[in-house]
């Protein structure tokens, strides 16, 4: 374990597979701008130790002995409201995804996520983003398309999308495709502060508070001329 400093993103890991936990810790410890402040093999252990560690970000597995990772997020988020929880799991089904997001997770990544993408996602969530593996973001959209609720069909929700500018619609579509903030910057050739401003405006206009909620709204209307947007590499 490495002690955090003011310039590092402090990360704690909750993963019962010891070799996998050690690999994640090594990735984080050897990356510039990061430090690993805790490693835990169960939610029960994390509940006892995490409040004192005060990590900026927690990487949380779902399938853990005893309490699940989703239940861990549900219990820990009220104690650590400033901490961002990112699920790192093998589960790709909609039920696990939505349960994790509803519990308070800010991101959802698959365990096969490459090291570089994982570290970029940790930076993204620390900066206010909600990173999701691209196929996870697609599943979120598909699930909302299959399960439209009466609230989602209300005229007020449809009308709210009409207030978006063409550029805001482009940013929203890229969010729905699973782009990280850094990738939106590169795709649209705009600055990171500009991206942040667009996303804040999107949230305000759609009356949402998270990326997952914005993506849900995206599934209920088509964007103008989306075909010119770059494909994700």
Query: How many domains make up the coordinates?
Result: 2
Q: Strand arrangement, largest sheet?
A: 2-1-3-4-5
Q: Which radius of gyration do the C-alpha atoms yield? A: 18 Å
What's the level 1 CATH class of the largest domain? Answer: Alpha Beta
Structural account:
- The chain has 233 residues and is an alpha/beta fold.
- The protein has two domains: 9-131, Response regulator (Rossmann fold, 3-Layer(aba) Sandwich), CATH 3.40.50.2300; 149-228, Arc Repressor Mutant, subunit A (Orthogonal Bundle), CATH 1.10.10.
- Helix content is 49%, strand content 12%.
- It has eleven helices and five strands, in the order βαβαβαβαβααααααα.
- It has helices at residues 18-29, 43-53, 69-76, 94-103, 115-126, 134-146, 155-161, 166-176, 181-188, 192-206, 211-218, and strands spanning 9-14, 34-40, 57-60, 84-89, 107-110.
- Strands 2-1-3-4-5 form a five-stranded parallel sheet, sandwiched between helices.
- Strand 3 (57-60), helix 3 and strand 4 form a beta-alpha-beta unit.
- The chain is globular.
- Mean pLDDT is 83; it is low at 149-159 and 222-227.
């Amino acid at each position: 374990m490495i002690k955090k400093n003011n310039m590092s993103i402090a990360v704690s890991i909750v993963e019962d597979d010891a070799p996998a936990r050690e690999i994640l810790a090594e990735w984080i410890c050897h990356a510039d701008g990061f430090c690993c402040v805790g490693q835990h093999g169960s939610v029960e252990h994390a509940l006892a130790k995490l409040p004192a560690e005060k990590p900026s970000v927690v990487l949380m597995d779902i399938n853990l002995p005893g309490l699940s990772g989703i239940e861990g997020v549900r219990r820990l988020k009220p104690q650590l409201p400033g901490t961002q929880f990112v699920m790192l799991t093998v589960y790709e089904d909609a039920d696990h995804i939505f349960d994790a997001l509803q519990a308070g997770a800010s991101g959802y990544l698959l365990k096969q996520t490459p090291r570089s993408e994982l570290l970029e996602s940790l930076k993204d969530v620390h900066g206010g983003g909600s990173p999701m593996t691209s196929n996870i973001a697609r599943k979120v959209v598909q699930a909302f398309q299959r399960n439209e609720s009466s609230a989602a069909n209300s005229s007020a929700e449809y009308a709210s999308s009409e207030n978006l500018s063409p550029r805001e619609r482009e940013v929203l579509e890229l969010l729905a495709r699973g782009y990280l903030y850094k990738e939106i910057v590169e795709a649209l050739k705009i600055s990171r502060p500009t991206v942040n401003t667009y996303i804040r405006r999107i949230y305000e206009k759609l009356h949402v508070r998270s990326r997952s909620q914005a993506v849900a709204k995206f599934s209920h209307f088509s964007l103008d001329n989306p075909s010119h947007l770059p494909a994700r590499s």
